[in-house]
Specification:
alpha/beta, 241 residues, six-stranded mixed beta sheet, ATP binding, globular, binds adenosine-5'-triphosphate, four-stranded antiparallel beta sheet
Amino acid sequence: MLSVENLKVVYRGVILALDGVSLELGDGEAVALLGPNGAGKSSLVRAVAGLLPKFEGRVLDGHVRLMGQEATHMDPVGISRLGLTAILEGRPLFRYLTPVENLMAAGHRLPPKALKEGMEEVFARFPRLYERRHEQAGYLSGGEQQMLVLGMALLTRPKVLVVDEPSLGLSPKLVEEVMRTLDALRREKGLSLLLVEQNARAALSIVDRVYVLERGRVVFEGDAKAAQEDQDVMEFYLGKE
Ligand code: ATP
């Protein structure tokens, strides 16, 4: 579904954020991309979503392939048409708009009937969001905002969902809930999921495979179970929690 090959990314021509990263995400697979602050995780998300230029970044070398097609320099609309939706870090939504309005904005390219059905599906999945559908999104809790950005992403009916740090700033209980939701979505919809996290334990509980990034390079790659059971990997690469 998604294949990243020897990707090098620079910002402003000088800051090397990714230094030859390769990564595969298969059909229906869930993969975690872990690593400390500044490792390059968000840069990879931006690269596969066609969003680097927005951040003064560009691909220096390597390839991104999506559904077998060359997508390295494709713009976000082209990438979304191919079926990849990325949720960037920090729960990007319109704070002064309500959940209904945010969903309408996210689905503005859909035919009206598909938008209506999509919104009904989102509200059925997240009843709490339905209760607060007419309140300003900025007043929702972190967990509710995360559900809203997930709902906005689902409206576009992605085949590949990339989520950057959904657990950020959430209580352990809510982190667990978000992980359960992502896992359920992946299974029910047959999505391929690339989960970018600093919270290794939470991410490892729902993924098949894992990549660990450090300073723009992949320093570990393997089965999630094996990584979880490998004390060295957990402590050395991911830190004790
Ligand atoms: P975090 O979890 O803090 O977001 P990350 O693993 O996602 O970290 P990136 O945000 O991809 O890491 O950052 C990788 C490197 O690129 C860092 O050195 C960072 O300072 C740099 N960087 C990221 N965005 C930009 C930008 N827009 N302009 C210049 N440098 C940037």
